[in-house]
UniProtKB/TrEMBL annotation:
It is found in: Nucleus. GO terms for cellular component: nucleus. Its main location: nucleus. The lineage of its organism: Eukaryota, Metazoa, Chordata, Craniata, Vertebrata. This is Uncharacterized protein. It comes from Pagothenia borchgrevinki. Keywords: Metal-binding, Nucleus, Zinc, Zinc-finger.
Length: 161
């Protein structure tokens, strides 16, 4: 599957179906493809659906990836999953504010000098990336937790040489 971006355009006015349709019409006219467009793939917003169906007479096709991401985000709201993801995210956040200790342990343990990856709700696979990196760096993270019994400020002082 291939895709291309023909044009990007700032839309300072309200994102009503009428305004969006006019922007899409203008873009397709400027490229000489207005009569060739039969469908538009987009997020699930009702204003874009209305712009396609009512104003442009294009088939409105919600993006499968976007729809899947919305369903996944709903699954992450389940309490046990949310609890685990939130805990891992707090751990990663801690190391984003103080990378020195992690780097020292990585050198000592001959681990790759990789930063931990923070989960981003709108980015594909970011939870997977976060847990994958935590798994890769688990021994360094565990060593920092063990050396001081917590991940507080005193932990970093005990690791410094």
């Amino acid at each position: 599957m291939k895709s291309a971006v023909l044009q990007t355009h700032v839309t300072p006015e309200r994102h009503t179906a009428d305004n969006l349709a006019e922007g899409l019409r203008s873009a397709t006219e400027s490229w000489g493809i207005l009569e060739k467009v039969t469908a538009c793939v987009h997020d699930n917003a009702s204003n874009v659906t209305l712009a396609n169906n009512e104003y442009l007479d294009w088939d409105s096709s919600p993006c499968y990836a976007h729809t899947l991401q919305l369903a996944i985000n709903d699954g992450f709201k389940l309490k046990p999953i949310h609890h685990i993801v939130a805990g891992a995210s707090r751990l990663v956040s801690h190391f984003h504010h103080s990378t020195g200790a992690l780097s020292l342990i990585q050198v000592d343990q001959t681990l790759p000098d990789h930063r931990l990856i923070q989960y981003c709700r709108t980015r594909w696979n970011s939870i997977y990336d976060m847990f994958d990196r935590l798994l890769e760096q688990r021994w360094a993270v565990a060593a920092l937790g063990c050396c001081c019994g917590s991940f507080g400020p005193k932990c970093h002082n005990s690791v410094r040489r």
